[in-house]
Amino acid sequence: MSTELQNRYDFLLVFDVKDGNPNGDPDAGNLPRVDAETGEGLVTDVCLKRKVRNYVQLTRAGQEDYDIFVKEKAILNNQIAQAYADLGINLDEAPKNPKDGAKRNTKGQGQGSEVQSARQKMCARYYDIRTFGAVMSTGANAGQVRGPVQLTFGRSVDPIVTLEHAITRMAVATEAEAEKQGGDNRTMGRKNTVPYGLYVAHGFVSPALAQQTGFDEDDLELLWQALTDMFEYDRSAARGMMATQRLIVFRHDSALGNAHAHKLFERVNISRKEGVAVPRSFADYVLSIRREGLSGVELIEKP
Q: How high does pLDDT run on average in the chain?
């Protein structure tokens, strides 16, 4: 049996991309996301969580306790309703527990302690809910869950350059398009890439919230595996070469923590090597960690 989480964790995820688009912005023609003031590249927390979800869905397929709530083609309200059905709660009848009310206020919706029961059922079944939390107050209503694991945006160490490439396809989709091309069955397209970018995202794990969702030591170990290996299972021509270069974890000796997270993160410094004007690989950087003076905090480096 796994054990409850007893320790607070703060971590840095260091990853890079080469000749790819790590996270396109649909409101900007799918250009790589950029801080307009500094030119630094951005990768949203939603993007990183998606990759964790995909990794868990792939590696734990068929294991009910590791199902994924927010996944492709999922109908979320149906999944919430299924939790009530599995609990034997008929949302068209009056609640079984008189404390939840003498009648059903809204048919098809849980109320009172039913919502709490459904919330616990959803946490137990779906890894991403007990990890990142979820809003499940739609449909049958299973309330809201604040997840113990929180991630920030990834931000590049240096400003990035976004390139736009013209690409051609030696075919057309329709006969009308072929006639328009005058027999030259060639169509044009655009592709956006970052030549190289090294990104850093920060994360936090709260044992207090973990106890509420059931996130345990086994779930935490799976999270570390996902953050380390997720890019290996997320290959596409658009994303180029992406990899986790370092996962630096600060494990506190207590549940409330023994140091401020931002002070721990300041111990990690990433800078370009002397003489490198235009970085094109992780080898062009130096990553150093100030290890002295850590009291009540264990430093763990993965991989």
A: 94
Residue 1 lies inside a defined structural domain of this protein: no
pLDDT at 181: 67
Number of H helices and E strands in the chain, helices first, is 8, 14
CA–CA distance, 92 with 90 (Å, rounded to integer): 5
For residue 31, list its beta bridge partners. 25
Residue 112 belongs to some domain of the structure: yes
Residue among 118, 109, 150 at smallest CA distance from 133: 150
Q: Which DSSP string do the residues of 134-201 spell out, in sequence order?
A: EE--STT---EEE-SEEE--EEEEEE---EEEEEEES--SSHHHHHHTTT---EEEEEEEEEEEEEEE
Would you say residue 141 has pLDDT above 90? yes
2 part of a folded domain: no
User: Can you read off the two tokens belonging to residue 103?
Assistant: 């009648």
Instruction: Kindly provide the b/e burial profile for residues 21-38, where b requires at least 16 CB atoms within 10 angstroms of the residue's own CB.
Output: bbbbeeeeeebbbbeeee
Domain-located, residue 279: yes
What's the domain count of the chain? 1
Q: Where are the alpha helices (DSSP H) in the chain?
A: 45-59, 76-86, 113-125, 127-132, 175-180, 207-213, 217-229, 261-265
Q: Note down the domain range covering 239.
A: 9-302
Tokens 């690989």 belong to which residue? Answer: 281
| pLDDT band per the 50, 70, 90 thresholds, residue 183 | low
